[in-house]
Design goal:
The protein has 246 residues and is an alpha/beta fold. It has two domains: 161 residues, Rossmann fold (3-Layer(aba) Sandwich); 69 residues, Winged helix-like DNA-binding domain superfamily/Winged helix DNA-binding domain (Arc Repressor Mutant, subunit A, Orthogonal Bundle), CATH 1.10.10.10. The chain is 53% helix and 12% strand. The chain has eleven helices and six strands. Strands 2-1-3-4-5-6 form a six-stranded parallel sheet, sandwiched between helices. Strand 4, helix 5 and strand 5 form a beta-alpha-beta unit. The longest helix is centred in the N-terminal third of the chain and has 19 residues. The two termini are 36 Å apart. Keywords: DNA-binding, Phosphoprotein, Transcription, Transcription regulation. One of its GO terms (biological process) is phosphorelay signal transduction system. Pfam families: GerE, Response_reg. One of its GO terms (molecular function) is DNA binding. This is Response regulator transcription factor.
């Protein structure tokens, strides 16, 4: 069961999203907040899997609320990891997906697809960005995608992300992200192409679990919460050149 908190300053919007999501048997709306301050408190109390977070809210906007929520969860994770050896041990296990089991992921909801919102939201740690005028059928699917550990950007938002990086330097940097192995860089490029773990496994003739392990290590090394942040890091580093065949 995917547990959801909805944060929006409009009661009708919250009620509408809750009704849409509660109609799905695998999704449970456990709380609603009318502003960012209330949302931060609810997340600390309820520890949901997903927060649907409006960008523009009184008291504390969605981006700042996202920073506070994820910063608090990061501090908690640090306290639970008693030694560097324990952290390294966790990465060396076969199933590294356990690293993200207790993470609350944020999907930003907005009527705007303005660049500043997109990049501020991703850098704050948001795992998804969905426009409020998206078809209702996309809402539940967005929740499932992000709950599974994938990143999600609305198509128009994805276009803006690519356009943003296309406006920058167009030089590929094969030595970018030196902490990554050659295989990890190869997999990161495929992630940036939008391939799923299953598709990457088929492309590289390796097991899906091996791909999951590599992706978990990539996220750890890049200090990225999910694939969306890892892809941004790949573009910013110059590993991936917008418009090039990746």
């Amino acid at each position: 069961m995917i547990r959801i908190v909805i944060a929006d300053d409009q009661a009708m919007v919250r009620a509408g999203f809750a009704a849409l999501l509660d109609a799905h048997p695998d999704i449970d709306v456990v709380g609603q907040a009318q502003d960012g301050v209330e949302c931060v408190g609810l997340v600390a109390e309820l520890k949901p899997d997903i927060v649907l977070m409006d960008v523009r809210m009184p008291e504390l906007d969605g981006i700042e609320a996202t920073r506070e929520i994820l910063s608090a969860r990061s501090r908690q994770a640090v306290r639970q990891t008693t030694t560097p050896q324990a952290s390294a041990s966790a990465l060396s296990t076969q199933d590294t997906s356990a690293i993200d089991e207790d993470v609350t992921r944020i999907i930003m909801l907005t009527t705007f697809d303005i660049d500043d919102y997109v990049f501020d939201a991703i850098r704050a740690g948001a795992s998804g960005f969905l426009l409020k005028d998206a078809p209702p059928s996309e809402l539940a699917e967005a929740v499932r995608v992000v709950a599974s550990g994938e990143g999600l950007l609305a198509p128009s938002v994805t276009r803006r992300v690519i356009e943003h990086f296309a406006a920058g330097p167009q030089t590929s940097n094969a030595a970018a992200l030196p902490d990554l192995t050659d295989r990890e860089r190869e997999i990161l490029v495929l992630v940036a192409r939008g391939e799923t773990n299953t598709e990457i496994a088929a492309s590289l003739f390796i097991a899906v679990q091996t791909v999951k392990t590599h992706v978990s290590r990539i996220l750890y090394k890049l200090d990225a919460r999910d694939r969306a942040q890892a892809v941004i890091a790949a573009y910013e580093s110059g590993l991936i050149v917008p418009g090039a065949q990746v």
